[in-house]
Amino acid sequence: xxxxxQDRQRLKEHLARNTTEPFILRQGECDYCACYLLLYGLGxxxxxMRRFFCCKLxxxxxxxxxxxxFYRLAGVKVGRDVVIAPGVVLDYLSCNLITLEDGCVVxxxxxxxxxxxxxxxxxxxxxxxxxxxxxxxxAVIRSGVTVGERATVGMMSLATRDVPPGVTVxxxxxxxxER
Length: 179
Description:
Structural class: alpha/beta
Order of helices and strands: HEHHHEEEEEEEEEEEEEEEE
Number of helices: 4
């Protein structure tokens, strides 16, 4: 079995565990991005195209049920009473790894990433936005991050690690605000 096949199998097993811990491929261990493992073959390419078009239709929709309907078609787990503002970008490649729990709000222009590529590594990870949590306008949530119940990520912040329930974080990288 080739390295790519082994890595594809490891990713499949990792995602089956339903953990928020990201799957990481370190540079030097391989010569390809982890996202390549998701796009393998015609099936992977067609799935990504479906997700892309559904997310684009959601982005063009106004607030409410229609927007959430298209995100669900793309594979996003969207709870009840979720508000997704205009301009939000949910990672097209693997938006099926995003969970937006009941009552959460994702502010205008926010970005939720499930995969990323840096000079050191490529990673794929689930993102969970907890019940009644708020993601501020233009905030970015990194792959593998959980935002806890009733937590807030301030506008234009970068959440690089989990945000505990009820906590407000802000900044780049986001840090807990003093009360």
